[in-house]
User: Fold these one by one.
Assistant:
Number 1:
Amino acid sequence: MRKKITVVGSGNVGTTTAQLIAENDLADVVLIDIIEGIPQGKALDILEACPVWNSGANVIGTNSYDDTSNSDIVVITAGLARKPGMSRDDLLYANAKIIKQVAEEIAATSPDSIIIVVTNPMDTMAQITQQITGFPSERVLGMGGVLDTSRMRSFIAMETGTHPSDVKAMVLGGHGDLMLPITRLTTVEEKAITEVLSESKIQQIIERTKNGGAEIVSYLKTGSAYYAPAASSVEMIKTIFEIKNDPLPCSVYMNGEYGITGVYIGVPVRLDSEGLKEIIELELSAEEKKSLHNSAEAGRDLLKKLET
């Protein structure tokens, strides 16, 4: 039986995610949105491209969660996008309200699904989704770390003229200003990045990675990034479907790993058909561990804001 993936939100991120799923023939796709006509039109357009891609995916658009029932995976992209001058955290209250409604619908129609949360502030939205659905935390995942790591690899490849596949990197922490690129584990053609780039250039790349989303927002003015977030979500889907098996940095609920409990934060993990299979605990320096804990505390602060 073919797999079924629902993408919630037919904006740029959601539509591009649906396109990539269909283009790779990973599953049948349901694109859902509250606006009538938009998901239907975009889904039909994607469906009509499937013969060109030699894909057998069935793609439908809908405004009813009944059509999403029994999905294997649900990708949540619904919510407001950032505008110039806004941080991810500025979206907190508006997107929390949207996510709560979406989570309730998913719990009712796809109670056995694995959820991938993309909506910002992503770590907090993942935690809200888990709380509202009541799903085991292993089945609610946040996307950010895959995206942040991909951005860092892109910037290193640009700077060194290296193919991105020859750049290895790992970005931990929250999907925000306190993310933690682990530079000592970053390599270019199997050489330590410190052998290839100066310390000042490495710091520039780290800052650009942290502000990668804001940089795109500053160009677009009326929207935010969507190609890379969509590609990152699909990378997670491929791993869940066990097409790939490489570790990924994803936002997951912490139960004492790295000395952190009770909050979603980005760490390296292994995924499988049940969702989170394993949290990989790297040996962190005291400074790295402090930075990771600071990032986790920032996530707790956002949750506290929603409780007040």
Number 2:
Amino acid sequence: MRKKVTVVGSGNVGASTAMRIADRELADVVMTDILEGIPQGKGLDLLQAGPIVASDSHVKGTNDYKDTAGSDIVVVTAGFPRKPGMSRDDLLMKNYEVIKATTEQIVANSPNAILVMVTNPLDAMCQVALRVSKFPKQRVIGMAGVLDSARFRTFIAEALNVSVENVQAFVLGGHGDEMVPSVRYTSVGGIPLTDLLDAATIDAIVKRTRGGGGEIVKYLGTGSAFYAPSAAATEMVEAILKDKKKILPCAAYLEGEYGINGLFVGVPCKLGANGIEQVYEVKLTAEEQAALNKSAAAVRELVDIIKRVNPADA
């Protein structure tokens, strides 16, 4: 039986994700949205690209969650986008309501699905989805680390004028300004980054990585990034559907790992058919642990705000 992936939200991120999944023939795709006509039109457009890109994946757009029933994976991109000057945190209560309602529909129609969350503020929205769905923690995963790590790797490759494929790196922590690009574990063709770039250049790259999403928002003016986020979500979907056991940085619900308890934080994870199959605890220096704790504290602040509004959902 062919796999089925639902993408919630037919905006730039959702439509791009649906396109990447269909183009790579990873699964049949259902794209749903509250806007009438938009998912249907985009779904039909993507379907008609099949003969050109040699893909037999079926794509359907809908406003009815019944069409999403039995999905293996649900990628949640629905929500309000960031605007210039708006932090991810500003989106908190706007998108809380969206994610709560969306998760309830997902559970009703696809109770065995794995959730890949994309909506910002990412880590806090994962927390809402976990509490509302009551799914096992390994089946609620946040897309943040793959994207942030890709930005980090891109800037390193540019600085060294090398292939992005040579750069191995990951970013820890929440998907926000306090994220922790792991310099000590970064290498280029097996060579430690600190052997190739001076401290000032590395610090500048770390700073740009932390502000990577905001930089794009500033340029676009009326939207946020979508090409790289959709690529990141698709990589996670592929790892799960193909049971690749691929190690990727993802937002995972921690219960004591890294000294963090009861919170979604970005860490290296093994992704396979069961979702998050293992969380890897890398050894951190005292300085790195302090930075991770600071990032986790920023996430906890958002979760605490949601708790005050609705204790059951955070």
